[in-house]
Amino acid sequence: MGFFSTIFGLFGFGIGITLGLVIGYFLFIYWQPDDVKDPIIRPLGELDSKTLQNLLPEIPLWVKNPDYDRVDWLNRFVGNLWPYLNKAICKMIRETTKPIVDQYSTKFKIESVDFECLTLGTLPPAVQGIKSYETQEREMIIEPAVKWAGNPNITVVVKAFGMRATVQLVDLQVFATARITFKPLVPNFPCFSKIFVSLMEKPHIDFGLKLIGGDLMSIPGLYSFVQDIIKDQVANLYLWPKALEVTVLEEDKVATKKPVGMLHVKIVSARGLRKADFLGKSDPYVKLSLGKGALSTKKTQVKMNTLNPDWNESFNFVVQDPESQALELLVYDWEKVSSHDKLGMQVIPLQSLVPDETKIYTLDLQKNMDPNDPSNQRSRGQITLELTYKPFKQDDITPEEDNEGGEKVQEDGLEGGGLLIVTILEGEDLEGKHHTNPYARVIFRGEKRKTKPIKKNRDPRWDAEFEYVLDEPPINDTLKVEVMSKGMGLGLHFRELLGYVDISLADVVNNRRINEKYQLIDSRNGKIQIELQWRPS
Question: Which ranges of 69-127 does DSSP label H, i.e. alpha helix?
Answer without folding.
Answer: 72-107
